[in-house]
Automatic annotation (TrEMBL):
Binding sites annotated in the UniProt record for ATP: 271
Species, as recorded: Flavivirga amylovorans
Protein name: Glutamate--tRNA ligase
Coiled-coil region(s): none
Assembly and oligomerization: Monomer.
Amino acid sequence: MTKNVRVRFAPSPTGPLHIGGVRTALFNYLFAKKHNGTFVLRIEDTDQTRYVEGAEKYIVDALNWCGMPYDEGPTSTALSTSSKSEAFGPYRQSERKHLYKQYADELIASGNAYYAFDTSETLDFHRKDHEAKGKTFIYNWHNRLKLSNSLSLSVEEVKAKLDAGDDYVIRFKSPQDETLHLTDIIRGDIKIDTNVLDDKVLFKSDGMPTYHLANIVDDHLMEITHVIRGEEWLPSLALHYQLYKAFGWDAPEFAHLPLILKPTGKGKLSKRDGDKLGFPVFPLQWTDPKNKEVSRGYKEDGYFPEAMVNFLAFLGWNPGTEQEIFSLEELIEAFNLSRVNKSGARFDPDKTKWFNHHYMQEQDNTILAELFKNSRSELSEIDVNYIAMVVGLIKERATFISDFWELSHFFFQAPSSYDEKASKKAFKDGTKDLMLELVSIINTIEDFSVDTLQTKIKGWITDKEIGFGKVMMPLRLALVGALQGPDVFDIMYMIGENESIKRIEAAIASL
């Protein structure tokens, strides 16, 4: 690419960041880094009535947890604090509101926008009247001269209303009988008949711009080269192209990402689906500041950020190969907008667990041990190096840190009970005598290592010419309390000779 790539992620601080938003941020981040460009975070908070305390910090924390810090943005947590960054700020639209009125006035002066004085009651009447006739009310070329605006009123009437402080909005004047030819990187060429477009409000009576005007002005002033956003903004593309044309500005390139669908493949995955379907839809846990309701997060549910980023990358994109496991650096190298699909991407909760299981195996055992230790009070006094050895034995069967205790509790405490079904299967007539003899064999072992234990005990079983199950099943039951867990000799080595004998004798006495 010949120009310096600049992309932006522009969420509204109205609550927690949905994973659909995280996916949008990720694709922007990958594209920017692929082309040695700049990843900008802009907070679109023009609608102050929907502002939620703590939402902006949540957005920043979520991006950082995912390993995608922004280069330019509204807080000191951004990596870049260069003069170039300052030149494009501020990055909250509420702090830029002094900019927008002049651009709205410029559109009025050029004849591309107009004042509209219609009251909400008047517009509501027209909507209901159209609905009663089976029609949809659209404010545009076919009725604008019948309504109260600066196109239908005289110059004197308009001036009088403005001087009197009457409420007004500024609407874009959509052209009549034209065909727009638009281009989207993902969706190709798009043709739009302007007769079906409405005259969107650009500036509201409260002195704040709507999303459409603020978005275009900010993207232009911040020199955004590529707008990569969700499919839900595709209907706005025609207006945005027309605004760039009206201002005489070069438009950025657009790419509209496919929807993330529910696991059934039907309907968009919403913020409410997580609680309904039993999996998180937010990167981090969120506590609603008003009702204190808590929504689950991937971080708190035990997912690794690398796993989340990896599975999100595959929601709507594929590398064109069989490879599924990608580090962030590999994703940057492989990413290309031309390989993003048009059709919606079905969210698969089981696949997210598959990715997390893989990344579990890649993690350093000591790091996992620290996380495990911090999650269980029972481990507070236990050496983390011992816990790391345990983790190495059991993590292959784990998907989350929260799985560790069930898979390993017997390494830290003796069984308090024995699985009833397993007990009936393992302890038969003669088992007690075999276990007592086994204790004698263990007492003779000087080198209490895994290899020696395996050699001595298996050799004894072979010499007695009995089935291995007659010894190994009750031995496992004695050590674990159930017929589960890693290799019996690994367990014996880890808990030690005295504890192994103690557990065998306890099982004999109990069973």
